[in-house]
Design a protein that fits this description.
With 328 residues, this protein is an alpha/beta fold. It is 49% helix and 16% strand. It has an eight-stranded parallel beta barrel with strand order 1-2-3-5-8-9-10-12, surrounded by seven helices. A two-stranded antiparallel ribbon has the order 6-7. α7 links the parallel β9 and β10. The chain is globular.
């Protein structure tokens, strides 16, 4: 898969900015664009907008929650994006978190493994031109057929995963895996579970793309960047999904303290529990050379497609980060 490097969208503050980033990322040699679904612009709309201003980069969702859109809606949106970017679109699906699914969307966050498996199964069938006839543990669909051209080539489907059961499911059913917010030390264990799932399904583990989003900032103001990242990571690591995950990654005492601070509504305690060590090992912050070294460490650990996600709320810093870490 070579030395792929990717860029993350959407870029604040608006869709036009996302298009400018997409166009410039392609000019800079980034291999792909990956679009998060975190309460901002609709990721399929961002993908379509990116397709309109690019001609080479792959464009993928990383990732769509399996609960907040039905399989026919997901398949229709994915097929539309694939028509706008033939052979370049990747559909990423994941369980997401209780906050996005249950708190924001009012959908019960239950049986995530079954939900992801059944969503991938149903969406893949729809995209292959089949009429649905599915009744599972978490969803049903009968009699739906996509009334547009079947995507060709077939749209690759990736699965977002954190913990061993979902990592193994991703290896089993997906064409690729999306990782997020882990230290390099956790990646080999994650890859082992992905490979176990692939082997169980009779697949070549080496054929799976492993994409990972990294919160990145090329800067000489380390303290300022850490402060911004700490404010973002605290609430994230208080959600049960990510709290369990960072504990599994080796930050067990930090995870316990973050959760305790969140439950008592003590934001200062939460912030203090997100240590500089956590931020340095999960985020990528520093000079261009330091950031490139960190990216290569993650690549050596098993990530095939590192994804740069500038987090500092300053447009100049965003552009500097993308330009400093561009391939070549």
């Amino acid at each position: 898969m070579g030395n792929r490097i990717a860029a993350s969208l959407p870029a604040p503050p608006d869709m036009k900015m996302s298009q400018r980033v997409a166009r410039r990322a392609e000019e800079l040699g980034y291999e792909s664009l990956w679009i998060a679904d975190v309460g901002g612009p609709d990721p399929f709309v961002v993908a379509a907008a990116a397709a309109a201003v690019t001609s080479r980069v792959r464009i993928g969702t990383a990732v769509i929650p399996a609960y907040t859109r039905t399989p026919p809606v997901v398949a229709g949106a994915a097929a539309s994006c694939a028509e706008l970017a033939p052979g370049r679109f990747i559909l990423g699906i994941g369980a997401s978190s209780e906050n996005i699914v249950q708190n924001w969307s009012g959908v019960p966050f239950k049986r995530p493994l079954a939900r992801v498996r059944e969503t991938v199964t149903t969406v893949r069938a729809i995209l292959a031109g089949e009429r649905t006839n599915f009744a599972g543990k978490t969803l049903t669909s009968h009699g739906y057929r996509l009334l547009m051209r079947t995507p060709s080539p077939a749209i690759p489907i990736h699965v977002g995963a954190l913990m061993p059961p979902m990592l193994e499911l991703a290896g089993e059913i997906a064409d690729g895996v999306t990782l997020n917010m882990m230290p390099a030390s956790a990646v080999p264990r994650m890859v082992q579970h992905i490979r176990a799932g692939a082997v169980r399904a009779g697949k070549d583990p080496a054929s799976l793309e492993i994409v990972a989003r990294f919160q990145t900032c090329v800067t000489d103001d380390r303290a300022g960047a850490l402060a911004v990242l700490r404010a973002a990571f605290g609430p994230y690591f208080a959600t049960s999904v990510y709290n369990r995950f960072v504990a599994w990654c080796g930050f067990d005492s930090e995870a316990e303290e973050i959760l305790a601070g969140w439950q008592t509504k003590d934001r200062g305690r939460v912030a203090a529990a997100v240590t500089d060590d956590m931020l340095d090992r999960i985020g990528i912050i520093g000079s261009a050379e330091q950031c490139r070294e960190r990216i290569e460490a993650f690549r050596a650990a098993g990530v095939t497609t590192p994804m740069i996600s500038p987090f500092y709320p300053d447009e100049k810093v965003m552009w500097r980060t993308f330009e400093a870490l561009a391939p070549g």
